[in-house]
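Key result, reporting period 2: structure in, sequence out.
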């Protein structure tokens, strides 16, 4: 019997939709989005074609880092709903074929978490060693997550009379994962959410979680073995559970988080691919992406990348050279107010690219064609822009724009949790309601792209090979899987280009997967392609004897 691999390792052909409950839809008029709002709009996500919903943190929190400062890992922020609402949402999602994954934020807690309160109060408390303390601050670990906002990884606590480690904000003390009780508790948290029906976790800050630099006791403990244990644990609790790790590290370090045999994280965010994608877009040249694709480590069959145009944080360009970063800044965020931490941009995809047009559609086509599982950040499917009046990274987390009504239809209350943008990206110009009715809209286009992506599992499973052409602006690559091939071509430049693709003599015909062009097959497996500025093309190759099924 042949198993259906595509549904077995579901994450390899998934399309993930990421949202923050707080900013999606408010159903009780308090100006704050809620879990019931997500449930109410689950069809929007299902009809987009997403197959997995990633919920950003919704646990109780003082909300100083938008919920990434959790004060109870087993609860729900009462402004957003209840545990019962979480279960209803998961059920509604599953009913539409959508799996739900949630953030697992266990590198740190909020300083208001009762564990930390107990720990700081008393050196003898059993919770003391759940965090990392020193009498004097250490130079380790090196580097800061929020340069300019934080100045050290160590914070003095009056009540404790010692310094504690925090790799992120000072109000986010790091948990001491060298302590067995902490590791047990983390497994318990995962078991809890799995029992409520989640299909996996977006693991926050994985390199920081596994980093022992600066922890005074028990150094040398192999935390990579622990990550493997966690992977086994989630697999025992729910066979198809998936771990997607936030791992923004140098290329040579990427493989270690997948494990030697792909037995640690299932997926890693493709930060390097993302940064080079923006550099390629800025230059109108394929080379930065080609170079990066050549450097990525080969992956075990269980593993894949999670690709994205934008996420909820700054568009980090921290792995580019200073000169390359300046190129991206100049092209997509020249104003200092658009930049953050000296290495990133606090803008959304559509506004950086200048709104809906050929270049924006090229970027989306590229996302769905690149190796990896695509993630759509809420609002990007309609081309929402940021609101730079909102400080910090929150500029890209303004409320979802459902309609041209006041506050974009997000709330019936007086004040939304964050202000919506004005001008070209205001709700009157960019909203779901208008775009749903318009077959030419960005929303309709992205739905078609997702449908095409889902029809062609080669893109999720296939072996990627770059195709050489003479045109520097063209990125051409093929993905081969089980004797079937998809070739995609993207023109990153602002001028028309022609190129000849050598597809192999056995290829007798090509089908245009996106159904936008008629493409003629030349002799000897050659195809002449002519792409307009920012044009793109996806071809499914037919060999002698292949049935025409697309
Ligand atoms: C990564 C998250 O994406 C970010 O939003 C958060 O501030 C940090 N981790 C700390 O949890």
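The corresponding designed sequence is given below.
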């Amino acid at each position: 019997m042949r198993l259906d691999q595509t549904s077995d390792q579901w994450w390899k052909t998934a399309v993930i939709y990421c949202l923050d409950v707080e900013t999606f839809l408010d159903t009780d008029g308090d100006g704050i989005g809620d879990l019931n709002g997500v449930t109410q709009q689950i069809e929007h996500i299902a009809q987009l074609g997403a197959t997995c919903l990633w919920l950003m943190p919704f646990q109780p929190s003082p909300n100083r880092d938008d919920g990434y400062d959790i004060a109870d890992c087993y609860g729900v922020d009462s402004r957003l709903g209840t545990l019962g609402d979480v279960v209803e949402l998961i059920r509604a999602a599953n009913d539409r074929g959508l799996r739900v994954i949630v953030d697992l934020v266990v590198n740190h807690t909020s300083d208001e978490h009762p564990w930390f309160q107990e720990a700081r109060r008393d050196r003898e408390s059993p919770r003391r060693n759940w965090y990392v303390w020193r009498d004097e601050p250490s130079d380790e670990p090196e580097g800061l997550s929020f340069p300019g906002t934080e100045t050290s990884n160590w914070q003095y606590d009056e009540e404790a009379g010692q310094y504690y480690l925090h790799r992120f904000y000072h109000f986010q003390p790091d948990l001491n994962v060298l302590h067995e009780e902490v590791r047990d508790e983390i497994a318990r948290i995962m078991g809890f959410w799995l029992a409520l029906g989640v299909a996996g976790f977006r693991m926050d800050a994985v390199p920081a979680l596994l980093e022992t630099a600066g922890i005074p006791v028990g150094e040398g403990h192999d935390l990579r073995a622990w990550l493997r244990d966690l992977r086994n644990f989630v697999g025992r609790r729910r066979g198809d559970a998936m771990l997607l790790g936030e791992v923004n590290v140098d290329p040579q370090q990427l493989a270690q988080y997948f494990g030697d045999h792909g037995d640690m994280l299932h997926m890693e965010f493709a930060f390097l691919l993302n940064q080079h994608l923006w550099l390629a877009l800025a230059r109108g040249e394929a080379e930065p992406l080609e170079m990066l694709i050549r450097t990525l480590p080969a992956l075990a069959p269980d593993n894949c990348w999670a690709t994205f145009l934008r996420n909820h944080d700054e568009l980090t360009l921290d792995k580019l050279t200073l000169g390359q970063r300046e190129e991206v800044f100049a092209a997509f965020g020249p104003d200092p107010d658009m930049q953050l931490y000296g290495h990133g941009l606090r803008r959304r995809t559509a506004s950086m690219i200048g709104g809906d047009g050929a270049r924006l559609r090229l970027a989306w086509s590229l996302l769905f064609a690149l190796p990896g599982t695509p993630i759509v950040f809420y609002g990007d499917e309609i081309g929402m822009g940021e609101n730079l009046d909102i400080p910090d990274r929150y500029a890209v987390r303004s409320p979802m724009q459902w309609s041209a009504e006041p506050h974009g239809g997000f709330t019936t209350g007086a004040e939304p949790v964050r202000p919506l943008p004005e001008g070209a990206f205001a709700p009157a110009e960019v909203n779901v309601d208008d775009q749903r009715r318009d077959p030419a809209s960005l929303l309709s286009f992205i739905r078609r792209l997702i449908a095409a992506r889902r029809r062609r599992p080669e893109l999720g499973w296939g072996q990627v090979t770059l195709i050489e052409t003479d045109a520097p602006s063209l990125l051409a690559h093929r993905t081969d899987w089980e004797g079937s091939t998809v070739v995609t071509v993207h023109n990153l430049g602002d001028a028309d280009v022609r190129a000849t693709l050598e597809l192999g003599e056995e290829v007798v015909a090509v089908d245009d997967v996106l159904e936008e062009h008629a493409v003629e097959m030349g002799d000897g497996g050659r195809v002449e392609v002519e792409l307009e500025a920012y044009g793109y093309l996806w071809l499914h190759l037919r060999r002698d004897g292949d049935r025409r099924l697309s």
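Residues 10-107+180-454 form a domain with the TIM Barrel fold (CATH 3.20.20.80). The longest helix spans residues 180-195. This case is discussed further under Risks and Mitigation.
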